[in-house]
Automatic annotation (TrEMBL):
Assigned protein family: Belongs to the homoserine dehydrogenase family.
Gene Ontology biological process terms in this record: homoserine biosynthetic process; lysine biosynthetic process via diaminopimelate; methionine biosynthetic process; threonine biosynthetic process
Every Aspartate/homoserine dehydrogenase NAD-binding domain range: 10-139
Protein name: Homoserine dehydrogenase
Taxonomic lineage: Bacteria, Pseudomonadati, Bacteroidota, Flavobacteriia, Flavobacteriales
Coiled coil: none
Enzyme Commission code(s) on record: 1.1.1.3
Binding-site list for NADPH: 92, 116
Residues given in the record as L-homoserine binding sites: 205
Homoserine dehydrogenase catalytic domain residues: 151-348
Amino acid sequence: MNIIHIYLFGLGNVGSTLIKQILESQHFFKTHQGIELKIVGLANSRKVLTTADGIGDDWEQEFAQKSITRRSDAFYDFASSYVEVRIAVDATASKELSHFYPELVEQGFHVVTANKIANTLSQEFYDNLRLLLRERDLSFEYETNVGAGLPIVDTIRNLHKSGEEIFAVNGVFSGSLGYIFNRFSEEELPFSSIVLEALKNGYTEPDPREDLSGNDVARKLLVLARETGLKIEFSDITIENLVILDLQTASANQFIDRITELDKPLLHRKSLLQPDEVLRHLGKLDVVNKSLEVSLQVVKKDSPAGQLQGSDGFFEIYSESYASHPLVIKGAGAGKAVTARGLLSDIIKIAKSCPIVIYK
Ligand SMILES: NC(=O)C1=CN([C@@H]2O[C@H](COP(=O)(O)OP(=O)(O)OC[C@H]3O[C@@H](n4cnc5c(N)ncnc54)[C@H](OP(=O)(O)O)[C@@H]3O)[C@@H](O)[C@H]2O)C=CC1
Ligand SMILES: N[C@@H](CC=O)C(=O)O
């Protein structure tokens, strides 16, 4: 039996769903795959809990009663007493935590993350992290960085690793902006009310401005661009910001209080549409010309992007073998269940690649 210790940062939409999925599937992994998954560490931004036996269904109560004020080294102290494979899982959107990945790796943790920030800091940080991972023989998995549970990162990585030249990746990279513009184009609802629903459904980032500003999609483009081997920085990306200037620097609460101020400019964009047109939020990664662009576009209703429904993401990959007919991946591009399942799949990938530890 391979025992895997999981240390989870972030207990929100994605983190709490991951806990539920792990607890529900523990028996399956044990009996069918010889893997025992134990969640032995939990942290939110304020509190941390460690437990040698692993958490159970009553984890929320246990966390409320037994967690202590968060110290960044609480997991290291605890983990140092155990030989089990340790995986740190990041289900936060925290920049601070992303800067801790090298330290986590130094402490012997594999890292699985839904958080895109570490992969989109400077190229120097990106390269150094990978160097450290190689030196320590540890893994870093982040399939959920692009397209939530859809297999986008792995597809691009496998094509690139097999020597295939990738020319471009275009599409609707954001599940929340997909949901927002699919509905806004067709329904007579204020833009702000659809954004608030996307937030309530767990599709947006914790601060929806990360989506509306184009930054979240820009991060996804950058993750894929670097996967194809491009050396490129976030500041090289051309991004259209849909948040009016006044609200760009407001606090998160002020933004929500004043969100209806977005309605007028977006209604104007909608009023310019022809009957056979809709608005879609598109990302364009042109690998050949090293150009990355994020913008709101008018597309024909009967085009592939124009026909999308719900929170669907849509990715067209153009490469040597898929030059005129792109490889297309489509499906839910956001949501807590699909994202948590993607994290779990990354955890199992690492668990399967680790040698079995013999316990005396
Ligand atoms: N929702 C989706 O569809 C998808 C999400 N993702 C990514 O998943 C991540 C999480 O999203 P989501 O679950 O919706 O976000 P939530 O806002 O629901 O949850 C965020 C959690 O992170 C915790 N947190 C914040 N900072 C820290 C920190 N420094 N250390 C430990 N915990 C911290 C928060 O704690 P507290 O409550 O104390 O603030 C909270 O528990 C994001 O990076 C997002 O981009 C990726 C793909 C799809
Ligand atoms: N906010 C993101 C969630 C996943 O990364 C999106 O809408 O796609």
